[in-house]
C-alpha cells in the first residue's frame, strides 16, 4: 500500500478532477517519493508481508550481552524464532527489545532459560526470525504528508526549474536542485534510523 493516494496528491496540487492527463506521472512520483523516504530514513514505514530473515549468532549479538540478538530491520510482529541448532525458541523464552517502545530492534533470550544464541555447523544465517518487518503497520500522517509534499516537489520540477541552491562560481550563476525539500527533511528528522 502506498504512503499517500493519487487523490491526495491531486488535491494538494489543486489539479481539477476532470484533468487526468498526468495521473500516470503522479502515481509514479508518489512511488518515487515513497522510495526516497525509505532510502533516506533507512527503513520502510509499512509492514512487509511475513518474511524470514537470517542472523549470525557470532556477529549479530551484543558484545556486552550475548543474549541480545540485533535485528537488521524493525520487527513489528514475531511469528517464529529458530535458534542455530534448529530448535524453536518459544515466546516464553525471549522478549523483544526495546521493551516499552516501537519499533523492535532486538530479541533477548530470557536469562532464566539458560539458552544462548548458537549454531551447529556454520554461524552464517544460523538463526532465523519469521515475522512482519517495518517501522509501523501503516504509514502515519507525518509520513503521508511528507510523501505528498515530496511527490509534489518532484512534479513541479518537470515544468519549472525548482532550484533551491544557488552558487556563483566565477560570477556566473549556477542553480542546483536541492534534492530533498527542507520542509520534508524537518518532517522526517525524528524518523531517521540512527542505529
Layout: helices, strands, pairs:
Layout: H1 6-12, H2 23-41, E1 51-55, E2 68-82, E3 88-89, E4 94-97, E5 104-109, E6 127-133, H3 141-157, E7 165-167, E8 174-176, H4 182-188
Antiparallel strand pairs: 1-6, 2-3, 2-5, 2-6, 4-5, 7-8
DSSP summary: helix tally: 4
> Biggest sheet, open or closed, and with what strands and sense?
6 strands, antiparallel
Order of helices and strands: HHEEEEEEHEEH
Mean pLDDT, as a whole number?
A: 88
What's the N-to-C terminus distance?
Answer: 26 Å
| Residue runs with pLDDT of under 50 for 5 or more positions | none
The share of residues in helices is 25-40%
User: Radius of gyration in whole Å, from Cα?
Assistant: 22 Å
Shape: elongated
Structural class estimated from helices and strands: alpha+beta
Residues in β-strands, percent = 15-25%
The number of E-state strands comes to: 8
Name some characteristics of this structure.
elongated; single chain; alpha+beta; 195 residues; two-stranded antiparallel sheet; 26% helix; 4 helices; 23% strand
Structure description:
The chain has 195 residues and is an alpha+beta fold. Helix content is 26%, strand content 23%. The protein is built from four helices and eight strands. It has helices at residues 6-12, 23-41, 141-157, 182-188; strands at 51-55, 68-82, 88-89, 94-97, 104-109, 127-133, 165-167, 174-176. The strands form two sheets. Strands 1, 2, 3, 4, 5 and 6 form a six-stranded antiparallel sheet that branches. A hairpin with a 5-residue loop joins strand 2 and strand 3. Helix 2 packs across helix 3 (141-157) and helix 3 runs antiparallel to helix 4. The longest helix has 19 residues, at 23-41. The chain is elongated and about 65 Å long.
Amino acid at each position: 500500500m502506498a504512503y499517500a493516494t493519487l487523490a491526495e496528491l491531486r488535491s494538494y496540487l489543486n489539479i481539477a478532477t476532470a484533468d487526468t492527463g498526468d495521473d500516470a506521472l503522479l502515481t509514479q512520483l508518489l512511488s518515487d517519493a515513497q522510495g526516497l523516504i525509505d532510502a533516506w530514513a533507512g527503513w520502510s514505514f509499512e509492514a512487509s508481508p511475513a518474511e524470514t530473515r537470517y542472523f549470525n549468532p557470532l556477529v549479530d549479538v551484543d558484545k556486552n550481552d550475548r543474549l541480545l540478538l540485533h535485528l537488521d530491520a524493525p520487527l513489528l510482529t514475531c511469528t517464529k524464532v529458530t535458534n542455530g541448532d534448529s530448535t524453536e525458541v518459544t515466546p516464553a523464552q525471549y522478549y523483544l527489545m526495546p521493551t516499552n517502545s516501537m519499533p523492535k530492534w532486538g530479541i533477548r533470550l530470557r536469562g532464566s532459560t539458560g539458552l544462548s544464541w548458537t549454531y551447529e555447523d556454520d554461524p552464517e544465517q544460523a538463526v532465523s526470525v519469521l515475522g512482519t518487518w517495518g517501522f509501523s503497520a501503516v504509514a502515519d500522517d507525518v509520513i503521508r504528508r511528507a510523501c505528498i509534499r515530496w511527490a509534489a516537489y518532484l512534479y513541479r520540477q518537470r515544468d519549472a526549474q525548482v532550484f533551491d541552491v544557488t552558487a556563483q562560481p566565477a560570477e556566473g550563476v549556477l542553480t542546483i536542485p536541492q534534492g530533498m525539500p527542507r520542509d520534508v527533511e524537518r518532517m522526517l528528522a525524528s524518523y531517521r534510523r540512527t542505529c
